[in-house]
Amino acid sequence: MRLTQLRSFHAVAKAGSFTKGAEALHVSQPTVTTQVRMLEDLYHVELFYRRGRRAQLTEVGERLLHISQQIFSLESDAIHVLGDAGELRSGHLRVAAVGHHHVTKMLVNFNQHWPGVHVSVSTGNSQDVLERLLDYDADVGVLAHQVEDERLTAVPFGEFPVVIFTSRLHRFALRESISIKELEGERMIMRERGSTTRRALETALQQAGVKPVVVMEIGHREIIREAVAQGIGIGAVSEVAYEAGPDLHRVRIHDADVRTYAQFLFLSERRESRMVRAFLDTLAQSRA
Question: What is the reported pTM?
Answer without folding.
Answer: 0.60
